[in-house]
């Protein structure tokens, strides 16, 4: 594969694994519940993504920084929604 | 930050964002439901992770390959469980 195609796969992968969390956020806001979404998964994932942000900053990688900042915000909103809706009973 | 600490953050991030999906899989298998987990999110995320595997293979990055193969397997099992349990009514 030539280098342009390889880069394409990298950006395609980054966009997909970042944008993927938007449907989860929309679903959670629509259904007003996320009981089946694991709290431990969300906390571990958000901590991991935060570490990716530090890593991206330290190695000065804009793609890693950008993708992970968006992923961080989306997952933080999913976590906040989950906690907010779980307290409504 | 020195380069050893930077690498530590990279590996720490990779382990967290990979292992994070294990609690979701365990929760889904225990509760036998994942209705609140977005199907679109799972399909987009799995496709993105698959693209990361191709990218990691093409740039010969073992950490990207390893982390994404495990993430791929875990999320595929979550997707299969979700579909399997949603059909039991």
Q: Which key terms come to mind for this protein?
A:
homodimer; 89 residues; mainly alpha; Monooxygenase
Spans of chain A of at least 5 consecutive residues whose pLDDT stays below 50 are none
Instruction: Please name the CATH topology of chain A.
Output: Monooxygenase
User: Helix tally of chain A?
Assistant: 4
Overall pLDDT score of chain A = 94
- Going by helix content, strand content and strand pairing, the class of chain A is mainly alpha
- Oligomerization: homodimer
Report the count of strand segments of chain A: 0
First and last CA, distance of chain A: 55 Å
C-alpha Rg of chain A, in Å? 15 Å
Taken as a percent bin, the fraction of beta residues of chain A is: under 5%
| Number of domain modules of chain A | 1
Q: Which percent range fits the helix content of chain A?
A: over 70%
Which of globular, elongated, flat, extended, rod-shaped describes the shape of chain A?
A: elongated
